[in-house]
Amino acid sequence: MSTRWYPIYQKGGPQLRVFLPNFWLKLIKPTTEQPANIVQFSCSMQMTKFDIKNYLEKIYNVNVVDVRTRIAMGKTKPDPGKGYIVKEEDEKIAYITLPKGEVFKFPDLFANEMKPEEERDKALKEAKEGHNKFLEKNKNRPSLPGWFNI
Amino acid sequence: MIAKMNLCRVNNSSTSKLIKVRNFASVLPNEEYTVTPQYPPIQDLSYLKRLERRHEETRESIKDVKTVEEKQIRLNMPKYYGFKSYILSEDYIPYNNLPLIQHVTRTHLIVDKELPEYYRRVYIDELVGKTKADIEEAISIEVEGQKRLHEVIKEDLPIHEVENIFSSSISKQINRIIINNLKKAYPHLLDVQVDNDPRVEACWYAGGMVPPENIKRYREGREWTKEFKDLPTDRLMSYEGKVNLSLRTNAPLPAFVNYSEAENPDFDVPFFKYDPRTVGTKTLHKRIVNVPGFWPGDPNQFGILSYHPRGHLHTRERFNDPQEHKEALHRQGILASFAWLSAQANFLGFNTFNDITYPLANQLVITNGQTWSFYAYQLNTMLMHGKYIEKNPKKNICWATPELKLYDNINNGKVEGFNDDVLKVLLKFYGNKPEKRLGLNMTPYLRHKEKLVADYEDDEQREWLEREYKFLVSNRPRLVEMDEMYHWEKIYKKDHKTRFMDKKLRPFELLKKPQDRTLNDRLGKYIPRALRPGLPRNKGRRAREFWP
C-alpha cells in the first residue's frame, strides 16, 4: 500500500528496488493508566484496524487479539509569525490488546540520562571541590591574591 | 453593646428584636446548662471530609423520600440532561471484560458443574421423563419444522441475529412446556407472570477506578484539590438488557446461602482499577433508569428466572480463545443477574446509595436451544460507590455452570443424544419455590401509607409525578437539547480569544453551564388565562410542581 508517485517503468529503465509504503506505527506512552496488556500506537491515517493487526502480526510477530482506533484532533495554535490560528495534523491512535496475561511495559528510553536535578547537584559538587582545592593550595600564603604565582 | 445601642437609635423597630433575644436568654438557663459539659462530635473539617459528609447527607436523605417513583426522580435530580454513563450492554462484550464486571457488581464467581447445595432440596427426578418427550418434540419442530420470517422473505440476516431469533422462540416453547408439566407438582408456577422480551435496564454507581484525565486536570487546577488528584472517582454504570423471557412472582426466592455468608472473607472479588474505557466500554449521556421489565405497583415484583440469548458470541469469534469464550458467558450471567435484581431492588425502595437490608436471589439461563449455561445469583449488597468499594465487607455471589449441551444433533426430526442432566438443572430452577419472608419489612425505606405514586390522593400530584417519572425512564431526549459550544466557537472564542469584540450572547460566554442544570431548574406548565378565572392576571400562571 502506497500513495507515493513512483516513476513509471519503461522498458529498459532501471528497476525500482525500494518500495516505501506509507504505513507506519509509532509506539506512544499512554497518558492514562491502562491494563498491562494494552499497548498504544500512533499510526498513519490510512490504516484500518485490519491493517494494524496484520502489520503487527506479519512484521513483528506480535499476537494481536483486538484493535480499537480513534482519531485524535490536532491541536490549534496561533501562527508564530502571522498570528492567525493554525491547526496541527489529526492523528490516528490505535489501542492494541494483547492476549490475557501478557505484560507490556513502556521502555524507559532515558534511563541512563541524568535528571536536571542530578545534573545541577553534580555541577555544584564539582564547583565546591574546585574551590576547596584552591583554598588548600593557598592555605600557607595568607593575604596573597590567587594570581600571585611564580 | 455600643453597636446595639447605635442600632436602636437609628432604627427604633430593631429595639423589640434585641429585647426579645434578651428575654429568651433569661428563660433558657436551666435547659442550657448540664452538670457535665456536652460537646458536639468533633468533625474533620478538611475539604475532602466535608465533601464526603455532604454527599452522605444527600444520599441518606433519599431514604426519607416516600414512594418508589419519587425516589427515582430524586436520583435524577442533579442533572436535567442526564449523566455521563458507562454503557454495559449485555450483547457487546469486549475482550477480557469479566474482571471489570466482577468489580463493578462486587461479585464472587463460583464455577462448578453442580448448582449450589441449596438445590439438593428440590426433587424433580420423576418429572424429567414426562417433560422430556414434549421438549424433544418442541426442539425438532423449532429446528426443522418451520420457516421463519427472514427465511421466507429471504432476508440475509447475520448469524448472531438468526441465533437470537431461534433462541427467543425456543425458550418460550420450553418455558411453556415446563410450566404445563410442573404446575401440578409445583403450584407456585400457576401464579407466575411470564414476560416476553421484557425491557430491563439498571443504573448504579461504582467506584475504585482511577479518575479520567479531565477530572485530573480539573483537580490539578485548584490549590486545595491538588493533593488528591489521583483519588478514584465514582462512575455511573448503565446496563442495557437483552432478555428473551422472564418469570416473576409475588414472593422472593429464598436466599441460597445465609445472609451472613456475604461477609465471608474467602469470597474474593478482583479489583479493577482502570478506567472502563481502556477496555472498550463506551459512554453516553443518559438519565438514571431502573426498569426490571414491569412498572412499579405490579404485585409480581420478584423475578425468579430469566432466559437470555447468546447470539452475540458469534460477533467475538475473532478472539479465538476458548477460555475467553467461557468468561464472556460468565460476564453476561453476572451482569444480567445483578442488573435485574438491582432494578427490582429499586422498586422495593432501595437504590445504589441505600443498600438492601435482606438478600435477593435470581436464576438465569443463557441458551441457544442446544447449549445451556445456568446461573444462580444472590444479591447481598448494592453499595459499591466511593469508599464502599473497599470498605463494604459484603459481596454478591454467583454460582455458574459451564456450557452444557442439551442434545447432540437433530436427524430427520429426531433429537439425538438428549442429556437428561441438563434438563434436570433447568427443572430444578422451576422447582425452586419462592417464599414470603415472614416478619421482615420488605420495603423499609418506603412510606407505610404511600408506597407508590398511585397511592397519593391529590389528583394533580399523582398525575404530575406519574408523567414526570414515565418521561425520565422513557430514554427520550428533551424537547430542547442541551446548549452546545460549536467547534468554531471553541477554537476562535474559547481556546484562542480572537473575537473578543463580539457581543457575548452564547451560554458559555454568560457563565452558564447547561450540563449542570438540575432537574427542577424549569418553570411549571403554563395555565392559560381562561382556565384560571377569578384570579388576577399575574397569579396562578404556572401549574404546581411536586419535586421530591
UniProtKB/TrEMBL annotation, chain A:
Main location group: mitochondrion
Biological processes annotated in GO: mitochondrial translation
Superkingdom of source: Eukaryota
A GO CC term assigned to this protein in UniProt: mitochondrial large ribosomal subunit
Region Disordered: start-end pairs: 130-150
tRNA processing among keywords: no
InterPro entries according to UniProt: Nucleotide-bd_a/b_plait_sf, Ribosomal_uL23-like, Ribosomal_uL23/eL15/eS24_sf
Gene3D superfamilies, alphabetized: 3.30.70.330
Ranges of Basic and acidic residues composition bias in the record: 130-139
Residues spanning the membrane: none
Single GO MF descriptor: structural constituent of ribosome
Keyword Mitochondrion annotated: yes
Annotated localization: Mitochondrion
Keyword set, alphabetical order: Mitochondrion, Ribonucleoprotein, Ribosomal protein
Family of this protein: Belongs to the universal ribosomal protein uL23 family.
PANTHER family noted in UniProt: LARGE RIBOSOMAL SUBUNIT PROTEIN UL23M, RIBOSOMAL PROTEIN L23-RELATED
Subunit structure: Component of the mitochondrial ribosome large subunit (39S) which comprises a 16S rRNA and about 50 distinct proteins.
Protein name stated in the entry: Large ribosomal subunit protein uL23m
From TrEMBL, chain B:
GO cellular component: mitochondrial large ribosomal subunit
Keywords: Mitochondrion, Ribonucleoprotein, Ribosomal protein
Transmembrane segments: none
GO biological process: translation
Subcellular location field: Mitochondrion
Major place of residence: mitochondrion
Pfam family, one: PDCD9
Any GO molecular function: structural constituent of ribosome
Protein name: 28S ribosomal protein S30, mitochondrial
Annotated source species: Brassicogethes aeneus (Rape pollen beetle)
